[in-house]
Amino acid sequence: GASGSAPHHVQRLARWRRFRESSSISKRPFLNLSYSKLSCKAKFRALCALNCCWYILLSSCRFSSSHYGLSLFVPIRYLADPRCVKVKSGSDYSLANNKPKQRSLLPRHCDLGMEQPKDVSTDFNTAWGCREDAQTVAASVPHNEGTSPVEDTTIGIVGGGLVGLAAAVALSQAGIPCRVFERALAMRSSSQGVVALWNNGLRALAAIHPELPAKVRAAGSEMLTVEPTIIDAAGNVDSKVMEWGKMAEAQYGQTSVMISWHNLQQALASLLPPGIVSCDRNFDGYHEERSSVLLRFKNGLQARCKAVLGCDGMFSGVCGQMFPDAQFIDFGQVTWNALLPRQGLPPGSVISNCTKRLNSSEEPAWSSFLNDAGSGDAYVQVRVSDSEKSVSMSASLGRGGLGLAGSKAQMLKVAARRANISEAVQAIDEAQLFERCMMARVPHSTWLSAGGRVALMGDAAHGMHPSMGQGCNSSFEDVVEMAEALSSCDGDWSTALARYEAIRKPTTDLMQLFSNYVGAHYNKGEAAELSDQETRELSSWAQTFPSRGPPPTSADVVRKFDIAGYHGIKVSSRSQL
Q1: Does the pTM exceed 0.85?
Q2: Percent of the chain whose predicted confidence (pLDDT) is above 70
Q3: What string of DSSP letters covers 221-270?
């Protein structure tokens, strides 16, 4: 140093000692260095070495020291304080539930060296404030062994079913980054259900991706003929054959397609770029921030998105958080269905490109389908529509499930009345027989979250009775409108979601009411107010897309229908199911 002044390192050490004496931290235990036995230069070198250790620790955790206002001479001896963290890889913090096991990984920036209170109930990074717009969890989390940082994407899609994958295909086509978060460990390679794609669904798929119509026709079965059979309460049978394909061609310009659920899912997945779908992401909650949404999953992983689409089905977790008291409709109907190879069925029981449909008013009221599902498969379904008897016949007391013991025996009790159906049911392996109860939703007041950055789609938004086959078809319309809104919003995601809801909700609410109306009248009760002609008019209106006009006047009957007071119907919240 200059003449008459102490060496530079001595001056800095003196300033450090004054800082210790004037601050509250001087009362804390420090690293037990024997200062009296060290020279000034040795003390200074030791202090520098310890500061290097502190910087290495911060770097390994992917934090910037300047972010927390740390100077070179932060009191690094706090690391020796027994109340501070002992950094052991993966031992003191569990990201799986976002709660400290014993101690937080690092002290809060506002209280260095102090353990976080044990009653902390907020998420781990609340106190860090790493992002200006973060209200709950910061963008950066410590990257310790066994943990992962928060994923970032523009649009997060919860649910990798048909609607979620279709949305991902449409957004990828529009050049909008997105990720699909699916709770299953892998995509399905089999299923027990089918989807009937009507005119509106096929046109929506063509708008989503031009290759989709050809893919579904190749994997499915064109519905060229329909053989409806009606049995009245006295046992009188009325059967006929309808040239469904020619009728559809004349009215809509194309035939409808029957396809298995998993084949349709695979057709959609084949058009996605690699890395879009993340499995083992079971939704656990979302939190809306000022300019983003944080998604949490039950395996501890998280994702931050500009907007979120809830496509996770009838019992949607996203909808459950948005509307904890949302109302469900239990129709009191039980269905058993299965997919099986056509070669395992008696000859003639299933005809190529044909749908055999039966409706019986016998006791108990029941219906069935024997369909060509394409790809060499046949679809068999039996449904008991008598609400007084259906639950008692259920192998699960109305809860549903796959491969339930006794489900095949119950199905045969009904199917035994028709030889061709009984023979088909006999060929089904009970382990592949799926039982489900007919459920739907009461229309929501809105499809948007309070912050406007989360929107519902598909069954999560408008779950409806399958009577009119519009659940999946109308959902693909959702995808078309959502993709158009997002691709033209110039980054104003909340406005795009609001536009989507404004366009889709009025039309789909009516479709939902119409489907639930028809489904309710399957139950034993009074005759429907709508005539057959009025029902056909409404069905034709529902299948028109994209230039759908106003609904027919008969829609007023559907809007006024009180489903909660109808025979055999139960309306309850999710917690009461």
Answers
A1: no
A2: 72
A3: EE--EEEEEEE-TT--EEE--B-HHHHHHHHHSS--EEEEHHHHHHHHHT
